Every structure is written in C-alpha cells, then in structure tokens.
TrEMBL record:
This is histidine kinase. It comes from the Bacteria. Residues 20-224 form the Histidine kinase domain.
C-alpha cells in the first residue's frame, strides 16, 4: 500500500516537473521561431535579432542543464568529509564575484572539523546555489554571514544575508521548481538544493524579514566520533 502511494506520488511529481519544463521551454522556442519566421517573411537581416535569439537559446540551455540535476542517475558518491572544507571551497569559488559586487563574506567556523557523510560535488553545488542567490538578492555592499556549529548528532549551517528579504506569501513557493522572481532566473536552484539536502538526510529551513534579510538553516547528521559511539553503546 505505502509503496503504491509513494510510487503514485513520485509519478505525480515527475508529471508536474515535466509539464513545467515543457512550458518553460516552449516560451523561448516560440520566440525564436517567431523571429526566424519574421526575418524570412520580411527579408530582415537575422543579425538584428541575433542577441535576442541568443538570449532565448541560452535560457533554454540553462534550463535543460539545471533540469538534468533532477534526473541524473542517483550515483551515490558519499564519503566522510569535512563540512568546514566544503564551505571554504565554495567561498573560494564565489569570492571574486562577490567582492566585485562589493559584498563581504564572513564564516564563523566551529572549532573542530564537522565531519559528515557527503557527496562533495553535490554539497558544493548546494552551497554555491544558496550563496549565489544571496549575492543576487543583495544590491552592492551586502554581507553574507555563515555560521557552522555542531552538537552530538547534527551539524547546523546558517547562511544569512542582509538582502531585501522574501515576502511571506512567497516563502512557501521558493522551493517549487520554476518559481523565480528574476528576469533571467530558472527557478530551479532551490528545488535542486532541497533535493540535495534530502539526499543527505538533512533539513532545510528559511526565515526572512522584509528589509532585514534572509537566512537559510541547514542541518545534517554528523559522523559521530568513535569514543562517543562507544559511550552510547555502553549506555544502551
Ligand atoms: P532563481 O535563482 O533562478 O530565481 P531559485 O530556486 O534559486 O531560482 O530561487 C527562487 C526564488 O527565491 C528567487 O527568484 C528569489 O525570489 C527567492 N530567493 C532565493 N534566495 C533568496 C535570498 N537569499 N534573498 C531573497 N530572495 C531569495
Ligand atoms: Mg538561484
């Protein structure tokens, strides 16, 4: 029974994604087709529309590229890795872009390394998506604060920005595929983030206040150090 429910739920989600994708691709396709027909009918030089056509094609390319993240075979590449290292790698990747927009990035690391089971490529993709969103949301001279801590069971990573915030009626929509408020957004970033968090048995929450900023709170189970495991075993 439950398996059947899960299967039909999966099919429903796949159906929604597929129709959303078809819809998103059809619009730029229609535009490109229109330009081509117009140029043929009017004898207009296609070069006049070159930039517009290129924009639409790039958009379709972004969409299909990001969409593949959903359907990629679930190749699990999990190993014990440091979340601290992962955050530092992502900061290195985005720093020059952030600095050129006048943003500052701060990272409050936990004192000892937070070890967890992760697919590092996916974890980097997740953090990069979130930090890109933060950079895009803030006008120049914003700041991104990240804080990593842990307790016996979980790691908590907070990614906070002082951007414009998210209106409360949009808060439950931002994780939906294709929801975007950006002119050239795909709306796929956060839904991919959500999936990556789920694949890591984690949780992802958002808090936001208009004019103050937005914070994403991620938690992941940590790899418990051996001596603690032994203590627990002794107790139970
Ligand atoms: P995209 O970035 O392509 O728009 P996402 O799924 O990454 O798609 O984000 C969806 C929407 O969530 C964004 O368009 C934006 O409205 C909102 N959002 C995400 N992160 C932030 C943030 N840090 N501050 C304000 N709004 C955000
Ligand atoms: Mg995004």
């Amino acid at each position: 029974r439950e398996e059947q429910m899960q299967r039909s739920e999966k099919l429903r989600v796949i159906g929604e994604l597929a129709s959303g994708m078809a819809h998103e691709i059809r619009n730029p396709l229609t535009t490109v087709k229109g330009f081509l027909q117009l140029s043929k009918a009017s004898g207009y030089n296609i070069e006049n529309w070159y930039a517009l056509i290129m924009d639409e094609i790039n958009r379709m390319s972004d969409l299909t590229g990001e969409f593949l993240q959903f359907s990629k075979p679930h190749r699990t590449n999990f190993r014990t890795d440091s979340l601290n290292d992962c955050v530092l790698k992502v900061i290195a990747l985005i720093e020059s872009e952030a600095i050129s927009s006048g943003h500052e990035i701060q990272f409050h690391e936990s004192t000892d390394d937070v070890l967890m089971l992760m697919d590092q490529d996916k974890m980097i993709q997740l953090l990069l998506n979130m930090m890109k969103n933060a950079c895009e949301a803030m006008e120049s001279n914003g700041s991104i604060h990240m804080k990593l801590s842990r307790d016996q069971k979980n790691a908590t990573l907070i990614i906070a920005d002082n951007g414009p915030g998210i209106p409360s009626d949009q808060l439950d929509k931002i994780f939906h595929p294709f929801f975007t408020t950006k002119e050239t957004g795909t709306g796929l970033g956060l839904s991919i983030c959500y999936k990556i968090v789920q694949d890591h048995q984690g949780t992802l929450e958002v808090e936001s206040e208009l004019g103050i900023g937005t914070r994403f709170i991620l938690t992941f189970p940590v790899v418990v150090p051996m001596h603690v495991e032994i203590n627990n075993a002794a107790v139970s």
